[in-house]
């Protein structure tokens, strides 16, 4: 912990930030928090539930959680709005989406500060989340006309909106660059949008963004509530044209089961254990920078790498590079600055990560680590919250220092599941076959990478890794703009997204068209 006294400047406090956004979009708020956006109007309906910040446990106000009947009615109203929007000329759709982007860009700093309070993103990461949404959708505004004028093979064909609105159920970690980005592209393509706010964080950020979208006449519906209460309305309603889901395998499996007999278009992004394979490698200096970058946002990303599969003869060199990186990771309260600072966002600390999404998640990670150690894993590194950057006396229950373990046993959850936090595991192998088996331990992943001096051999190995994107001596990510994104095995179900694939996923092309994706009857993968 720093010896310097830290504080949150008055203009960056939750009350100051929410005061500014209330002034900006007052229509979106009830007394103690956001309302729900139904049929173009903000309605103060639902059961109030307190929300707290993972930064320090402080109250953020209340979320109004809807019941199933209200959500069903909202979806039916959204379907009516969808039909009107589907007939709107493309130039008008582009104009309105562009105007919404201008408004979002004008609120950029406060949106980023909301993310810092709601989900604990450090300033740089929070700004990136907002900026990527804006720049990504602007690219689609420029490219959408061509994308709507060809089929999946690239031949001339007119693509049309779906029969009903797209339902969006996304996790809390990227409200802007994943959820809002996807919704605006769906709107560009001629679809109405229904979105659910995550119950764990991001509801205020999404409220402000959707208020700015609604002001431009975009047909957006934003609902808050528990998944168990709203799932039938958001997944099985006959009015829904497609479902876009981002989350873990457990919830993803439940969603897939609910979709099974509906025949609805769907894009289900689920977790997988993303891995680094290290074989006949020597460029450790470059690898150090890659390792450091991997800890951004406490590895609370669907494309984080929590598993390293290392050739036995390289273990000492790997650890010599890896352990100092863990020791140098900086974490703490994202908005805490030294006394005497100007209070500008320029003074905010350059942290690798802040808290996890909740104290419950931090405890879950502790339990998973304890389980792995109990079954025989070897502790390599266990960081301490004493090294964090915190306010005097603040609640630190949602924070988790880096942890690394060698050889997690098969009986432990961490051997097969993504931890979604700063907990790494290392597996030592002697043969390429062992390495590939360990890299494929979770039956499919979104990304993976291989570190090797022989890049051509690495590319041959990559062909046997069950991940959608495999990097050679580099990290892979969702990507932006024209880069495709999907998953292999159990990490993805339905149509792939990214670039033209996202537009194809939310439009209808010629009869009999086979989209790229993982479907019950076939799998079709683009070049990645």
From TrEMBL:
Identify the residues that the record assigns to the Aldehyde dehydrogenase domain, covering every copy: 48-507
Q: Which Gene3D superfamilies match?
A: Aldehyde Dehydrogenase, Chain A, domain 1, Aldehyde Dehydrogenase, Chain A, domain 2
> What InterPro entries does the annotation carry?
Ald_DH/histidinol_DH, Ald_DH_C, Ald_DH_N, Aldehyde_DH_dom, Aldehyde_DH_Superfamily
Give one Pfam family. Aldedh
Source organism superkingdom: Bacteria
Q: Which UniProt keywords apply?
A: Oxidoreductase
Protein name per the record = Aldehyde dehydrogenase family protein
Q: Which organism is it from?
A: Actinomycetospora straminea
């Amino acid at each position: 912990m720093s010896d310097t006294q830290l504080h949150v400047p008055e203009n960056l406090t939750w009350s100051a930030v929410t005061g500014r956004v209330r002034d900006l979009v007052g229509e979106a708020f009830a007394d103690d928090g956001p309302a729900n956006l139904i049929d173009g109007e903000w309605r103060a309906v639902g059961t109030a539930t307190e929300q707290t910040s993972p930064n320090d446990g402080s109250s953020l106000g209340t979320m109004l959680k809807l019941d199933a009947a209200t959500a069903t009615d909202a979806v039916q109203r959204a379907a009516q709005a969808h039909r009107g929007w589907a007939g709107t000329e493309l130039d008008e759709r582009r104009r309105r989406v562009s105007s919404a982007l201008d408004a979002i860009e004008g609120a950029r700093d406060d949106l980023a500060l909301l993310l810092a309070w709601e989900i604990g993103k450090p300033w740089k990461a929070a700004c990136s989340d907002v900026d990527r949404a804006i720049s990504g959708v602007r690219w689609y505004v420029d490219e959408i006309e061509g994308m709507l004028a060809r089929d999946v093979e690239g031949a001339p064909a007119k693509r049309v909106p779906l029969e009903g609105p797209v339902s969006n159920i996304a996790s809390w970690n990227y409200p802007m660059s994943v959820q809002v980005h996807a919704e605006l592209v769906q709107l560009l393509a001629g679809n109405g949008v229904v979105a659910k706010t995550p119950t764990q964080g991001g509801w205020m950020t999404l409220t402000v963004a959707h208020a700015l979208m609604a002001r431009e006449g975009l047909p957006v519906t934003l609902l808050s509530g528990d998944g168990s209460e709203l799932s039938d309305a958001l997944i099985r309603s006959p009015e829904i044209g497609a479902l876009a889901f981002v989350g873990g395998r457990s919830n993803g499996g439940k969603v897939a089961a609910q979709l099974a007999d509906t025949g609805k278009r769907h894009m289900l992004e689920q977790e997988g254990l993303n891995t680094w394979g290290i074989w006949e490698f020597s460029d450790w200096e470059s690898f150090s920078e890659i390792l450091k970058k991997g800890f951004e946002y406490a590895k609370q990303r669907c494309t984080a790498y929590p598993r390293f599969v290392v050739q036995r003869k390289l273990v000492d060199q790997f650890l010599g590079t890896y352990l100092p990186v863990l020791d140098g990771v900086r974490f703490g309260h994202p908005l805490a600055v030294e006394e005497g600072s100007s209070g500008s966002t320029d003074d905010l600390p350059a942290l690798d990560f802040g808290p996890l999404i909740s104290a419950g998640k931090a405890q879950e990670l502790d339990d998973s680590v304890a389980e792995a150690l109990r079954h025989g894993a070897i502790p390599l590194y266990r960081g301490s919250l004493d090294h964090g950057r915190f306010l005097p006396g603040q609640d630190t229950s949602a924070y988790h220092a880096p942890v690394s373990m060698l050889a997690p046993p098969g009986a432990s959850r961490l051997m097969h599941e993504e931890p979604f936090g700063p907990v790494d595991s290392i597996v030592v192998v002697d043969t390429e076959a062992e390495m590939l088996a360990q890299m494929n331990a979770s039956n499919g992943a979104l990304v993976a990478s291989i570190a090797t001096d022989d890049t051509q051999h690495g590319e041959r190995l990559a062909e046997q890794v069950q991940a959608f994107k495999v990097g050679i001596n580099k990290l892979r990510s969702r990507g932006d703009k024209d880069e495709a994104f999907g998953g292999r095995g159990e990490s993805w179900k339905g149509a792939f997204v990214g670039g033209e694939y996202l537009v194809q996923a939310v439009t209808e092309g010629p009869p009999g068209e086979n989209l790229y994706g993982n479907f019950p009857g076939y799998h079709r993968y683009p070049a990645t």
